[in-house]
Amino acid sequence: MFGINRAGRCRRNRYMRCGMGEKSWGKNSFLGMRGFFNANRNAGLENKVKKAIVDDSKCLSCGACIEVCPRGAIKLKDKAVVNYEKCVGCGYCVVRCPAKAISLK
């Protein structure tokens, strides 16, 4: 029986060719390449994540962004300051800021 099972993997007859020139499930088959695809799935994504940027001229120092930040990445000194190592770019602070002083870039 051929098709997709509930886990999403292709079921094949074990005597069938894998479709990539080998008679068995080798390194060139889909299942053998799974490690390759998993290793490269997140490559380069750390540079694509947007971070919160605070415009100091618009910031009212109200602290609304601090209350909604799930990672605690925003601290209040004179104005809001973002810790970029903790910021995941969720955008909650952007939505909550009444002065629209925070943007994601």
What does this structure look like?
- With 105 residues, the chain is an alpha+beta fold.
- The chain has helices spanning 34-40, 64-68, 92-96; strands spanning 3-4, 10-11, 52-54, 74-76, 80-82, 102-104.
- Strands 1-2 form a two-stranded antiparallel sheet.
- The radius of gyration is 24 Å and the shape is globular.
- Mean pLDDT is 76; it is low at 15-25.
Give a brief rundown of this model.
The chain contains 3 helices and 6 strands, in the order ββαβαββαβ.
Question: Characteristics of this structure?
Answer:
two-stranded antiparallel ribbon, alpha+beta, 6 strands, 105 residues
Write the layout of secondary structure elements.
Blueprint: E1 3-4, E2 10-11, H1 34-40, E3 52-54, H2 64-68, E4 74-76, E5 80-82, H3 92-96, E6 102-104
Antiparallel strand pairs: 1-2, 3-6, 4-5
